């Protein structure tokens, strides 16, 4: 009986060790994947911010930046105390009411320590002044759309697209449907509803629209 008890206990121990080993292997794979994704995201982010790399000063002590595109925010303290540079710049951008904007504040350390409060005021204040004096441009958001159109309606369909100044118009005949092609394009957000109604009125009420 004693031998059997030891054998059963030993088996349970082996099972636990095997389970822990599998869990550890899974954890290692997850960490490796996370590191890979982080590196991939970082590389992608660098590619998406060529302007930041152009204006930064490699001789400066800190090149702190932040940007806002829609609901996406990014910032970097670049060696400053966490939260004293990037966040104040983001706050300045948010308060400006601007979108699709990036601010880079370059600091050359001159030997005077500003403290956390001083850094927040300095970076936030400079970003605010920069945004007030920077030139702005009105950008209308565009909506990607796709419509399945029969061949006999293409002439009327394209005339409507041209009248609404649709952009990036492309056509794909590989729809798997006889006599039907897919036309994709981009239209200003404030014109999307009017164009859809015009296409239904002048072409067909049975048009199938795809919006992204």
What does this structure look like?
It is a single chain. The chain has 212 residues and is an alpha+beta fold. Mean pLDDT is 78; it is low at 1-9 and 19-46. It starts with a helix and ends with a strand. 49% of the residues lie in helices and 23% in strands. It has two domains: 50-133, Ribosomal Protein S5, domain 2; 142-211, Alpha-Beta Plaits (2-Layer Sandwich). It has a four-stranded antiparallel beta sheet with strand order 5-6-4-7. Strands 2-1-3 form a three-stranded antiparallel beta sheet, with helices on one face. The protein contains six helices and seven strands. It has helices at residues 2-48, 50-55, 86-96, 115-133, 154-163, 192-202, and strands at 62-69, 72-76, 101-107, 142-150, 167-172, 180-188, 208-211. Helix 3 (86-96) packs parallel to helix 4 and helix 5 (154-163) runs antiparallel to helix 6. It is elongated and about 75 Å long. This is Ribosomal protein S5 domain 2-like superfamily protein. It holds the Pfam family Impact_N. Belongs to the IMPACT family. Keywords: Ribonucleoprotein, Ribosomal protein.
Keywords:
alpha+beta; 212 residues; Impact_N_sf; 6 helices; Ribosomal protein S5 domain 2-like superfamily protein; ribonucleoprotein; disordered N terminus; single chain; Impact; Alpha-Beta Plaits; Impact_N
